Structure formats: structure tokens, C-alpha cells
Amino acid sequence: MSPESTGQNEHYLRVARRRFRTWRGDRPFWAGLFTILGGVPIAYFPYADLHLGNMTLTMSTTAGAGSLIIGVLLITLGLTMWFHHIVRVFAGVAAILLALISIPVANIGGFLIGFLFSLIGGALSVSWAPGRPAGEETPAAEQGPSGEQPYEERPEGELQGAAAVPQQQGAEFDAPAEGGRHRAG
């Protein structure tokens, strides 16, 4: 075994941590985590018994089933964001809608804790975009206008991004000069 082979000598926790970081970077991890953390209090509080000394507070309401359904759906959407990140926009919009519905249905959205976590998770999921590989450059169309000059002060041939029109090459085309129109009309 040579000293250059680092994979064999690494500790398994370091390897597991690196794999988790790679997995986490390829998907909207924080969006899924916030959505799951938002679904738990929404589903839990209607069935919880709080003990304060000898006194028991029961939060059971008539909307217990609705709270449970909303909480389970939010947890499912959080897991969907992790494992099927292709549908992240749908999952994010659904999480935002369920968070808004949880305000009147599920004890003010799990005492605003579940509502805020679900709302943040849904917004993070909608706004997440996959990163580019390290060696890939941004295409010229996405880079925006070149230079710092306003449009009016630019040289005549320079146009902005996608508005550029290709110049015709006179010698390469055998188009008839019929008033500038093509034969088809």
C-alpha cells in the first residue's frame, strides 16, 4: 500500500461525512428539513397532553384529524424534497399551501411554530436550483450585458444577450432579390 492511496487510510466517519455532504448538496436539504420540522408540531399538538404539576392540559380539538393529515402531508413533502428533488417546485408550493391551511385548521398552525417552519421550507424548496459542476462555465446568454455602459452608449454592433441578431453573410446565400421577400411569400 502506497502513501498516495488516501481512500484506504481514511477514517470511516470522515468518509460518511463527505458522502452526506455530497448527498446534501445535490438536493434541497434544508427545505426538506424545515418542512419536516414544520409538519411535526402541526400533527403533534392536537393530540398532546401537557403536564403542569398535577394539572393536565389536553389540546384535543375537533380538527384533530385535519391537523394529523396536514402534518403527515408536510412530513411526506419534506421527504419528497430530499429523495425526489425533481418535483421540488410542486412540493414547495404544496408545503406553502398546507402551511397556510394549517392556520385555521390546526391550532393556529401548530402555535405558529409549524406554520413558520413549513412556510420557510416551502419557500426554500421553490427557490432552490441545482448547482453547476465545478468546471462548467456560465453560458454567454446567462451572463447578461457585457461591460458597464448603458445600452445607448454601446458600440453600434454590440447588442444585449438574447436580443443579438446574427449578421447575414452575402456571399454564402443565393437568395433572389424579389423585394426582400422569400419565394414562399
Q: Label the overall shape.
A: flat
Distance from N terminus to C terminus (CA atoms, Å) equals 75 Å
Mean pLDDT: 78
Which class do the helix and strand fractions yield?
A: mainly alpha
Number of helices: 8
E-strand count:
2
Give a short account of the largest sheet: 2 strands, antiparallel
Helix share bin: 40-55%
Q: What pattern of helices and strands is seen along the backbone? A: HHHEEHHHHH
Strand order of the largest sheet: 1-2
Given as residue ranges, the uncertain stretches (5+ residues, pLDDT < 50) are: none
Relevant terms:
8 helices; mainly alpha; two-stranded antiparallel sheet; 185 residues; 2 strands; 52% helix
Secondary-structure blueprint:
Blueprint: H1 6-9, H2 12-25, H3 29-44, E1 49-52, E2 55-58, H4 64-83, H5 88-105, H6 107-111, H7 113-127, H8 140-143
Antiparallel strand pairs: 1-2
Helix pairs in contact: 3-4, 3-5, 3-7, 4-5, 5-7
